[in-house]
Every structure is written in structure tokens, then in C-alpha cells.
């Protein structure tokens, strides 16, 4: 009996090690569903956002994945998209011009890697929320909230970045997300 348990444990450990060794899947382009969920997340910020919110879409014009995300966001949002009590007005923000943005909320495009780390500093200084679909950016500390809707809805929150920027969420919301 112990031999079977030990074998199962070794198989489980081997399986976890194998999964950890596999590369993370590439982030897909931002979808309308991602933006709908991100818009709902904004409603859980204390105090909740309302009215018109200028969404700074942070991208790198020289990075194809980042440009693709920026274009997808602009297509989805058009001249403005209302979700709940908030109307998101998109404004492209080239990463080189990030410090000069007057956006109320930042959306970090995917594929920026270490260049995206500048967003955390700006969000902290300006006390604004940064969202993305790039979970790696949240894990690395570049952005506070990641939203993904495929294959299922997943929201990841970086507690340290939220604290640094002075942003808090309703307790009920935090029970539904993964905090790191």
C-alpha cells in the first residue's frame, strides 16, 4: 500500500515539474469580453469609478504584439464604451510618453516585457490603476490587475502594487480573485 502511495506521489511531483518546465502560453490579443470584465472590475474600486474615464492604452509602437493589442483595444472601445456606470474613452499612450499622460486608468498592452515596468512607477506616482491581459506583467510587478477570459475568467491582483498606488477594492471582490 505504501509503495503505491509513494509511486503516486512521485508521479504527481514529476507531473508538476513537467508542467513547470513548459513555456507559458503566448497571450492572445485582447478581446471584447476581456474589456467587459475589466470594466466590471473598475466598479469594485473604492470609491467606485463612475462617469467618463480616460483609459490610457500603453503600448510600444516598435513592438508588434503591443501594437496589435493597442489596435484591438481601439477597435473594441471605438470613441467610448459604456460598461456599468463607466464610459471608457480610449487614448493611445506610446510608452515613451507615459509620464505625460493624464489618463484616469492605464491598460498595459501585452508583449512589453521589462519595458512595461515603467507603468508601475507612473501608476504609483499618479495613484491610478493599471490593468492588462498579460498575467506575466502582474506577476513581474509592472501592472496591478490582470484580466483573462479564455478559457475561463481569471483575475489576478498584485497586492503590493495596489497598496503602493493607494488603490483598494471591495472585500467581496477580493474573495473572487487571485492575489499575489
Describe the protein in words.
The protein is 39% helix and 24% strand. The protein has a single domain, classed as Response regulator (Rossmann fold). The strands form two sheets. Strands 3-4-2-5-6-7-8-10 form an eight-stranded mixed beta sheet, with helices on both faces. Helix 4 crosses helix 6 (159-165). The protein has helices spanning 2-21, 32-42, 64-77, 118-126, 135-140, 159-165, 171-174, and strands at residues 45-46, 51-59, 81-83, 86-94, 105-108, 129-132, 145-148, 154-157, 168-169, 178-179. The protein is α/β, with parallel strands linked by helices.
Are there runs of 5+ residues with pLDDT below 50, and where? 1-27
Quote the average pLDDT.
84
Reading off the top of the CATH hierarchy, the class is best stated as Alpha Beta
Q: Strand order of the main beta sheet, please? A: 3-4-2-5-6-7-8-10
What is the alpha-carbon Rg in Å? 18 Å
Essential attributes:
single chain; 180 residues; alpha/beta; Rossmann fold; eight-stranded mixed β-sheet; 10 strands; 39% helix; globular
Quick structural summary:
The chain has about 180 residues and is of the alpha/beta class. It has one domain: Rossmann fold, CATH 3.40.50.
Secondary structure elements and their pairing?
Layout: H1 2-21, H2 32-42, E1 45-46, E2 51-59, H3 64-77, E3 81-83, E4 86-94, E5 105-108, H4 118-126, E6 129-132, H5 135-140, E7 145-148, E8 154-157, H6 159-165, E9 168-169, H7 171-174, E10 178-179
Parallel strand pairs: 2-4, 2-5, 5-6, 6-7, 8-10
Antiparallel strand pairs: 1-9, 3-4, 7-8
